[in-house]
Amino acid sequence: xxxxxxxxxxxxxxxxxxxxxxxxxxxxxxxxxxxxxxxxxxxxxxxxxxxxxxxxxxxxxxxxxxxxxxxxxxxxxxxxxxxxxxxxxxxxxxxxxxxxxxxxxxxxxxxxxxxxxxxxxxxxxxxxxxxxxxxxxxxxxxxxxxxxxxxxxxxxxxxxxxxxxxxxxxxxxxxxxxxxxxxxxxxx
Length: 188
What we know:
The chain is of the alpha+beta class. The chain has helices at 6-16, 23-30, 34-50, 73-81, 90-102, 107-114, 119-127, 150-155; strands at residues 55-60, 63-68, 105-106, 131-136, 144-148. The chain has two domains: 6-72, Arc Repressor Mutant, subunit A; 90-172, Winged helix-like DNA-binding domain superfamily/Winged helix DNA-binding domain (Arc Repressor Mutant, subunit A, Orthogonal Bundle). Strand 1 and strand 2 (63-68) form a beta hairpin. Residues 172-179 and 181-188 have low confidence and may be disordered.
């Protein structure tokens, strides 16, 4: 059985992705000393190995990272090369509309406008190359700013963002996400 403090390490490393965190950074966040933190990382690493998990904990260039096991590379390659569905959900169209009309925009600003968490939808749109990172906001934490891509313009038959349809007056906006109302990208 793992020690209770390995779960926060796992959560933190999942959130930071391939950036990873050093033992010192983890220790500071967890309010533990470096030796305790290193021991917890090794315990988590051993747990992943013992149960043959699809992930592994590695220390690369002084940072701990959660990575996929090399033996599953074929599955990951298949996922990356699999044809994508051309349909977008209503949530994806809503986020895409928000980004298109408010770019550059951070994830938290998208969530404030929508009123719901949007991490997954933003990831999907970035994976489909309809939005991309366009910079960092000059505020605490320097959040990522998103904007639309050339593929977005091509998909919706636009030459420039100036060709986006006019937004209706604020009092007529509803939960309907048909701002684009274009047939080029069917909804679910």
